Amino acid sequence: MDEADTINEEPRAIGNRPYTLSPKFKSLYELLIEKNKVMNLTAITEEREVEALHFRDSLAVLEWIPEGAFSVVDVGTGAGFPGLPIAIARPELRVTLLDATEKKVEFLKDVAAQLDLANVTCVCARAEDYAKTARASFDFAVARALAKLNALCELCMPLVKPGGAFIALKSAQTDEEIADAARAIHTLGGELEAVTDYTLPGTDIPRRAVVIRQKTAAPEQYPRGFAKIKKQPL
Ligand code: SAH
Fold it and tell me: Rounded mean pLDDT of 72-85?
């Protein structure tokens, strides 16, 4: 067995750290629900559920982003998860919200302006194209619910500086997906650092964070076009 396959810590209670949801989260909830009436942003709309499944789930990422980190890119951020809660909780971090869908990015720009989030930059682009101009320029890339881990690594890791990390938020049933990504992680200059299972605070919902350390910059030929990434995953 590959050594990386053995890295799987016991579930732990992430989020028991005292994150207090600031009034900005309340405003974010209201903006999300208002816009959700005219476009499809979230299937979850009940306040407690949005807090647990979007806000707290997103904030779990902070566990791996140390003080002093400078920049984070959220790839395929959609309605802003996990990027917006990260930006609200950590105003000193420069957070880039990247999504290929123009309407979603318009929503994100509006939220950033209304919540006065000076640390947020919204970019409408496909990750494959964005890597051409923003290669190896972020301390961290994060992503939730965008693609299988092998494809996700190819979209995200080229954006990460050597020494930085890519953190994927996943469901707990992803052992096979993680094993299947071993070659992609290696090819893209990374190393599987941790697979951490935890339950969302206030719920018994199991979640998993996959942390991949960027050892060297990803080779220039990656990411390939999306069709290639899907058809012939690394
Ligand atoms: N991360 C969010 C949204 C997931 S849905 C969440 O967890 O709630 C996936 C999002 O990724 C969609 O908004 C879609 O527009 C975007 N997307 C899909 N492929 C992409 C690509 N190649 N580059 C950038 N964004 C992409």
Answer: 98
